[in-house]
Specification:
Elements (H helix, E strand, L loop, with lengths): L4 H11 L4 E5 L4 E3 H17 L7 E5 L4 H13 L2 E5 L5 H10 L2 E6 L1 H4 L12 E4 L5 E4 L2 H8 L1 H8 L19 E6 L9 E5 H15 L6 E4 L6 H14 L2 E4 L6 H11 L3 E4 L1 H12 L7 E4 L2 H5 L2 H7 L3 E4 L5 E6 L4 E7 L10 E6 L1 H17 L1 E4 L6 E4 L7 E4 L2 E4 L7 E2 L1
Parallel strand pairs: 1-11, 3-4, 3-5, 5-6, 10-11, 13-14
Antiparallel strand pairs: 1-2, 6-7, 8-9, 12-17, 13-15, 15-16, 16-17, 18-19, 19-22, 20-21
Helix pairs in contact: 2-3, 2-6, 2-7, 8-9, 11-13
């Protein structure tokens, strides 16, 4: 059953039963067994409220432990989850809830303040993401089940809830798992229907690249209502046995710095917003040295990260594939692998930050070699900058089983 997404979730819960799973930074903490128990309580609530397999359940709120639990409970029950960006305007949220035909809505308190339940007439219930309390109920069975939830759980598991009690119905590849709505830049958001094979393929890709992360710590900053943050900042980590910390607020420089120093995460996902915060720290003298080697395609595309970085830091543009930067101060030694967007799509670029001395030292060695052997000049005929390779630069190293290498610089490269 290793081609089942739900299988991986179930297996991770059982294998990591006593490990920490989800934590709100400076807030609640849940081990994997706690997550399993909360999932089961939501299953009982769904069942008594008449929710059927394939029914839609919407989530709208900031990243949090309870958001993650509601997401996992919806999928493991067999319902379809509809994640909604908490930054969407109320009219768009109303439209998504109605268009998706959601029967229930889990909502954060900040979002709820701006919503109007009368604009979501098809909903049978609205529950708080803070404590699963009922904000609006149009179903007597839902209200009754919520009041008796602990009693119903106790009757189903009179002794105690154990790993062997975690048994979910496994998914089929083409079954609908998620309806993910776009940002709606031209009109109301459009729904993208994602089957379980989409979740499974991204998860197995992450396993193949990074392996599993049992016991390692990760900070979640990207919105989980976006598929990138959902797939690689939550699902992969949970299925790996990792401990995910949610900032539960906008990642300001102070919050990020405090969280990094406290949590000491093993893996962080990055976007240009994070790079902007790094630049500010560099300008304040809190980061000692940053140098960049960039693929020439980013200059042709005029990618935002290049514009941001070249205006501030020492850099060279070389014929290399990966975009990597090492960042070092008295506390940190990290490598940032960033990805530029080579299309006209204005979405944010994405990348990964590694906090590992081994990876940092390898990347820094490659950087030193490239900066010392490659030189730039001007082509007199075209006036363009050219790279003059002085040697073939073939460097490779091992990163958790994955080979990193720079490409040989065999010809002059116009940029």
């Amino acid at each position: 059953m290793e081609e089942s997404f739900i299988y991986y979730i179930e297996s991770s819960i059982k294998e990591n039963w006593d490990r920490p799973a989800l934590t709100d930074y400076h807030g609640i903490n849940c081990n994997y067994k706690d997550v399993a128990r909360k999932i089961e309580k939501l299953h009982i609530l769904f069942e008594h409220a008449g929710i059927k397999k394939g029914d839609k359940i919407a989530l709208c709120g900031r990243n949090s432990t309870n958001w993650g639990i509601a997401f996992l409970a919806t999928l493991t029950y067999g319902a379809v989850v509809v994640p909604i960006l908490n930054e969407f305007k109320p009219d768009n949220i109303h439209n998504i809830v109605n268009h998706s035909e959601s029967r229930l809505l889990f909502v954060g308190s900040v979002v709820w303040e701006g919503l109007n339940e009368a604009s979501m007439e098809a909903l049978e219930g609205i529950l708080s993401l803070e404590d699963n309390s009922i904000l609006v109920s149009r179903s007597q069975t839902l209200s009754h089940a919520r009041v008796r939830l602990n009693e119903l759980f106790g009757k189903k598991y009179p002794d105690r809830f154990r790993p062997e009690d975690v048994t979910y119905t496994y998914d089929k590849p083409e079954e609908l798992a998620i309806i993910n709505y776009t940002s709606g830049t031209t009109s109301f958001s459009k729904g993208v229907m994602l089957p379980y094979r989409s979740l499974w393929s991204n998860l197995t890709f992450a396993f193949g690249v990074f392996g599993k992360l049992p016991g390692e710590q990760v900070i979640s900053m990207l919105p989980m209502a976006h598929m990138y943050g959902l797939a690689f900042e939550f699902i992969y980590e949970f299925a790996s046995g990792a401990h995910v910390f949610f900032l539960t607020r906008t990642p300001s420089p102070k919050i990020i710095a405090d969280a990094f120093s406290t949590v000491r995460p093993n893996l962080i996902i990055s976007v240009p917003l994070i790079i902007e915060k790094i630049i500010r720290k560099y300008q304040k003298g809190e980061i000692l040295s940053i140098r960049f080697l960039l693929d020439p395609r980013v200059k042709v595309c005029k990618a935002k990260p290049l514009q941001m970085l070249s205006a501030t830091f020492s850099h060279k543009i070389l014929r290399v594939h990966a975009k990597v930067v090492t960042i070092e101060n008295e506390v940190w030694k990290i490598s940032v692998v960033s990805s530029q967007n080579a299309t006209t799509n204005p979405k944010l670029e994405r990348g990964v930050i590694f906090i590992s001395d081994e990876i940092f030292n390898f990347d820094k060695t490659v950087f030193e070699h490239e900066f010392n052997t490659a030189r730039t000049g001007n082509n007199r005929e075209t006036g363009r900058t050219v790279l003059h390779p002085q040697t073939d630069c073939n460097n490779s190293g091992n990163r958790s089983g994955n080979v990193r290498s720079t490409y040989p610089l065999r010809n002059w490269k116009y940029i």
